Fold Type 1 glutamine amidotransferase.
Amino acid sequence: MKLSGKKVIQLVSNDFEDLELWYPVLRLREEGASVAIVGENAGEKYIGKYGVPITSDYAFADIDPNDYDAILVPGGWSPDLLRRFTEVKEMVRSMDERQKPIGQICHAGWVLISANILQGRTVTSTPGIKDDMTNAGATWVDEPAVVDGHIISARRPPDLPDYMREFIAVLAK
């Protein structure tokens, strides 16, 4: 398996976009990666926008990002909640400093904006936050998936196959 031995953080809070969380988790596990579901509290059930639940394995405070190879931020309205946690922003900044893959789709760019890591990067997102991304110093492009070094971004659920193909390729390097 292409990603055996790789460890990935999947951030979660309520109102995540169901497909944008579950599709990456399942694809990474299919490739042999270990995916830790990380929310505000360990063992808590979080509900997606369309009612699909997921239970966290760990709390933000339990995680040392140095023990992980990559991080994923889901879309939906969840990013607006996630970016309020200092631990989340610190995890994202830590991954950025170590040039580890950071995946973001749809509204997930809000978390990267709040972590202050988008200056000079080329990314995509849902068009609804294009202005937020450019105001944070990023160059925004309207493409299904964009790779800028270790940051992999996508627009919305129909782009998930392109997004995960690119994310897996970066993580496998």
